[in-house]
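Dear colleague,

As promised, here are the two records you asked about, laid out in our usual form so they can be pasted straight into your sheet.

NAME FIELD: protein one
SEQUENCE, THEN STRUCTURE:
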Amino acid sequence: MKKSCDWPADDPLLIEYHDTEWGVPLHDDRRLFEFLILDAFQAGLSWTIILKKRENFRQAFADFDYVKVAKFNRRDTNRLLKDAGIIRNRLKVEAAVKNARAYLEVIEKFGGFDKYIWQFVGGRPIINNWKTLKEIPARSAESDAMSKDLKARGFGFVGSTICYAFMQAAGLVNDHLVRCFRYTEVSAE
């Protein structure tokens, strides 16, 4: 039997996410936007809730097309707040639209969100060597810097803890435990 990180436990949805997505270095602006939005909505909630609603989020947010989301207006916000398929938190919904607009500005300035966001880790994933879940931090110097810079650029719901979760999801850091079969696989990508 393959050894894995402990956090997916026996949840099939978390296992699938862990085994196929979590920690894989992402360089696609649309997927990066998806993780940025989902991690913001996850604040204060479990990742399982977000994964269960992920398809609903995709439908509600135009398949995470940041150009389309940037054009959302008050009517769209009200529609989203009535959508039981997503997290109906006004501040998070409004931040998602605001973030899409800021995202476009970053793309314009840096030639891609990918180019911008990866600068916080020097263009390469940080490979950590954690043996237990207790060792994994909730934030880092890199996530602190990312959070500060994103906020300065007009992003919302991008505190350091959210940024660190985003970094884990998008592979800017490899926080698979060293005994996990994905640790070496993700490090090689």
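NAME FIELD: protein two
SEQUENCE, THEN STRUCTURE:
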Amino acid sequence: MKYLRHILTNKYLLAGIAFAIWMLFFDRNNIPVQTQRFQELNKLEKSEQLLSGQIEETKKELELLKNNPATLEKYAREKYLMKKENEDLYIVKIDSSLVK
């Protein structure tokens, strides 16, 4: 019993425990905030990888458009719905819920 009372009245131990509790739960950089920041960092890194892939694809597409006139014509027809003077243009939209 004396030993337990001696431990509970030790001011260094109490100060250490109070400090640990303060740092873990009440500080500006506590554990819940750190886990939230870690999750956000992971999400941003995934987004960065996705955007890097899209940039690479766009660079390749731009290079094709600069070097190949047939690709340029195809791109203009598909993206901007351009057509020649004597052509008719039909746009067919497919309902995505019907496609399996």
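A couple of things worth noting about protein two: Residues 31-67 form the longest helix (37 residues). The helical segments are 2-8, 11-26, 31-67, 69-80.

Best,
R.
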